[in-house]
Design a protein that fits this description.
binds protoporphyrin IX containing FE; elongated; Flavocytochrome B2, Chain A, domain 1; 6 strands; alpha/beta; 6-stranded mixed sheet; 17% strand
């Protein structure tokens, strides 16, 4: 009986020590500024994706692949399709008729972001 008591006490403290030692270990911290780098695209990259089935746009400094979103867009296709392959901030901001998109639409953008737009790149 005493042996059982001693060995289970020993096992208990062994486990407690193991968990404590485990909690001391932490993954090495990320280096300062080590955020996953976003790809950068220029106007020529955009222009290679200028069809409704393969539709990239630059909006507010970001590059987006809207190929899968286009069929879901609420307007007539001919309103949005001409902007494939182009810088479309103004068109997005005004819906080409002076009215901004809703916060809901703004929230959708993130889902399609693939990189940054470099204005000064060909
Ligand atoms: C860049 C070219 C675009 C143009 C010219 C454009 C234009 C329009 C128009 C005319 C409407 C319907 C009428 C109206 O609500 O006033 C509309 C609605 C809408 N569009 Fe766009 N759109 C563009 C891009 C986008 C993108 C990239 C998204 C999201 C990823 C988007 C999301 C929506 C949503 C959610 C609506 C419903 C109304 C709202 O929430 O504002 N649109 N858009």
């Amino acid at each position: 009986m005493r042996r059982l008591y001693l060995s289970s006490t020993f096992l208990f403290w062994l486990l407690v020590t193991a968990f404590w030692a485990g909690s001391l270990w932490a993954p090495p911290p990320l280096e300062a500024g080590a955020v996953a780098a976003e790809k950068t695209y220029g106007a020529a990259d955009l222009a290679r994706h200028a069809t409704p089935a393969n539709c990239w746009m630059a909006i507010r400094g970001g590059v987006y692949d809207f190929s899968s979103y286009l069929p879901e867009h609420p307007s007539r296709p001919d309103v949005i399709e001409p902007w494939c392959g182009r810088e479309a901030t103004e068109a997005y901001n005004t819906k080409t008729k002076g009215r901004p998109h809703s916060p809901y639409a703004d929230g959708l953008l993130d889902k399609y972001r693939i990189g940054k737009f470099a204005v000064d790149r060909p």
